[in-house]
Amino acid sequence: MKQRLFKSFFLNAMAVFLVCVTVFTVLLLLDMNDVNRQHLNAEASLAAAVLQSGGQGALETVSLEDSRIRWLGQDGAVLYDSAPDLRPLASQALEMDDGTVLEVSNVGYTLPHLLLQSFTPLLFVAALAVGLSALLATRAAKTVTEPLNRIDFSHPDERDVEEELKPVVRRLAAQNRQILSQMEDLNREHDRQDRLRREFTANVSHELKTPLTSINGFAELIRDGLARPEDVQRFAGKICDEARRLMDLVGDILRLSRLEERGHCLSLEPLDLLDEARLTAEQLHGLALRRDVTVTVAGDPGHIQGSKKIVAEILHNLTDNAIQYNRPGGSVAITVTETDTEAAVSVRDTGIGIPREELPRIFERFYRVDKSHSRELGGTGLGLSIVKHGAACHDAQLHVESTLGQGTEITVTFPKKRPPSFAGSGPIQKRETGIGEN
């Protein structure tokens, strides 16, 4: 910065010097030309007086330095020329009483001639100007940069600087506070992510260990011949159930990991939410019959641009939860609505609801409101996490409403515009909810 300031100040000073020298030279040239004209007038008057008093003989005795005297006849013929070889630049002519013309001229002054005559003093002045400009530029640059160098950028205090720099120091202090705040937010987020990662690892380990323990226990009983013949088929069925549960868990973990990858949600196509909801209801019709729950689908078409597979997973998880955590004889209503800018699908059940204090955690991985009931139903605890990330993948909004003991409604609102690629968790609005996680 100091070098740039020095260069700027020095070039500006030299530019001012050159402009001043040019203006001074032009003014000096004009003044000298004016003096030269007056000198010519005086010389012409003198020569005319000599010619009138003494004729040509007297005129020939007149000697003017750097001047040329010519006497021209009435017909323009040269009667007398004092310096035929002189090439004058300025002249003054006087008409005599007898009709002849007396002309006095001299070399005058030109800008190159004037500069040549003034070369030595101009060179001295130029050297002096360069030296002074460099000195002044150095001092000016130092004057500007020293107060800046004294600023403590880590802890700027406007009381320690000049008045002109106080706005800069205030902005630095504000930026430092903002940076510190952002760093604290980043540290908190890092700690939160680290905590979630540890919890996720612990939960995965636990969830994997439970079915593996059951599989290993039943298999050892059969291998060691400790199981009665009539129990072998039942134990084999338990092994199959736990293996299927293990496969479901691994599948959900893989789906959730893919949803969390940036750029995963790029394969989009036109979708009709009402058709997707009807297809989901058909797929879960058997489960609804077993749970004695009625599933209905109604509403507008709901056209969006989305990933068919991910939208299907969202609807499947929401509807499956609404059926699993419902009451015998209950109902699940899937409703699709549409406006010019967005389309929404809501899944409402008549379940038991959950306490208000459980609301902030319903979309966490492996979180279950009723852990014992969830295990009976065979859930993995990742259903609503998949819903949350799938909604974020489409830049969709999640809205949850519930009344304890009466039921829950979860609404996913999709924008009509083409959604961006996956960019992390989307905004979620939570109220009381009665949906657990599968």
TrEMBL record:
The keyword Lyase belongs to this UniProt entry's keyword annotation: no
Region named Disordered: 417-438
Molecular function in Gene Ontology: ATP binding; phosphoprotein phosphatase activity; phosphorelay sensor kinase activity
SMART domains: HATPase_c, HisKA
Histidine kinase domain segment(s): 203-418
TM stretches of this protein: 9-30, 114-137
Keyword Membrane: yes
Keywords: ATP-binding, Cell membrane, Coiled coil, Kinase, Membrane, Nucleotide-binding, Phosphoprotein, Transferase, Transmembrane, Transmembrane helix, Two-component regulatory system
Cross-referenced Pfam families: HATPase_c, HisKA
Reaction equation(s) it catalyzes: ATP + protein L-histidine = ADP + protein N-phospho-L-histidine
Bias-annotated ranges (Basic and acidic residues): 429-438
Cellular compartments per GO CC: plasma membrane
Superkingdom of origin: Bacteria
Coiled coil: 169-203
EC number in record: 2.7.13.3
Subcellular location: Cell membrane
PANTHER family xrefs: PHOSPHATE REGULON SENSOR PROTEIN PHOR
Name of the protein described by the UniProt record: histidine kinase
Organism: Candidatus Avoscillospira stercorigallinarum
